[in-house]
Amino acid sequence: MNAPVPEQAPAAPLGGPRALLVWGVGVAVYFVAVIFRTSLGVAGLDAAERFDVGASALSTFSVLQLLVYAGMQIPVGLLVDRLGTKKVLVMGAALFTVGQLGFALAPSYGTALAARALLGCGDAMTFISVLRLGTRWFPARRGPLIGQIAALFGMAGNLVSTLVLSRALHGFGWTTAFAGSAAAGALVLVLTLLFLKDHPEGHGPAPVERAGLAFVGRQIGRSWREPGTRLGMWVHFTTQFPAMVFLLLWGMPYLVEAQGLSRESAGTVLTVVLLSNMVVGLVYGQLIARCHTARAPLAIGTVLATALAWASVLLWPGHAPMALLIALALVLGACGPASMIGFDFARPANPPERQGTASGITNMGGFVASMTTLLAVGVLLDATGDNYRIAFSSVFVLEAVGLAQILRLRARAARREEEHLVASRVEAVHVPA
Fold first, then answer.
1. Cα dihedral sign for 20, 22, 28, 33?
2. Which of 80, 100, 202, 379 is paired with 318 by a 20 to 30 Å CA distance?
3. C-alpha distances in Å from residue 193, one per residue of 20, 96, 134, 157, 184
4. CATH assignment of 17-198+215-423, given 3.40.1010.10, 3.40.50.150, 3.20.190.10, 1.20.1250.20?
5. Burial class of residue 11 in the structure, from the number of CB atoms within 10 Å of its CB (0-12 exposed, 13-18 middle, 19+ buried)
6. What is the pTM of this model?
């Protein structure tokens, strides 16, 4: 006769005040990372003057930062799956803080480039970790809304760059503004060490096999073979980059030099993008949580609306009216929330032990597109004598490529997701009570 199996204590319910506290610490790290990531967006003209560089060299700051960020996504996803969120967030906070401080003190263009690369490496470790915290500490049905709220706090970090860091830059100077902001990185590093925990009691992940090249290959291969992962990557690729390029570097120069706005008016337009992002993020999160079939229509609709808004501004003879620029800003505000839909395709396509890897593949998409467009705009500006109409037309090329892939993978991912759902129901029926 077999010995009785001892009963395990029931797992604590997910959610609640403690979940909000732990998740909030992770979100604070991401919030500061976004402040540092977007700080160059309000300092682009100052950076060009400080380091005496042109448009192509200026775009290299953001391109290198995003190249490192995008290249780190799959390794970071593997690290999160292997080491857990706390260790990865600690490493990330330490790296982006040192990078921001190095950028403040950089005596040359080359040193500043190295600092931005270090910042990009640390920044790359934050968002995937925060997504993993959300899946560990909150019920699965709240996943879309939790993800959108995390992204909303990221936009709040962008807003701090636009409203606070830009004023500090012009009030206190380059070194004081950037070095002072680095103190926020040290603060969230301490908070992470003291308060963050990977998962609540009773909700630990399944044991992960010993890491090695074979394990890494299997994790990546299994994630990539899922149509939902690939669809998520292309959704992220196609929706995120128009707003990212605008906010990260080229929005302020375009509005000031091509549209003739003052820096204050240009800052207002950038702020509208951020506020729109925060409102649309909440709306998209609620819609997807209530109706999963809304994911693809929302993503495709955002891509088409963005293309129409950009075409309207770029084809307008002379300076576009302020109302049209505000309309563009409102539409660009939907790009960030739409990019989060990519994770809502990848999440149900992969088991918990591959969530970090799948999120890394998905997150890589938008940053590859952003990096490509940032570089293309800089090169085209130098080649055409600062013709912003031609330079920003590169947006349409990447949107067309991404939209074609979304339409190609959409039905296949839906069928595969339905198979996963049926399999999980069958497994639940056969699990002994």
1. negative
2. 379
3. 17, 16, 18, 21, 15
4. 1.20.1250.20
5. exposed
6. 0.79
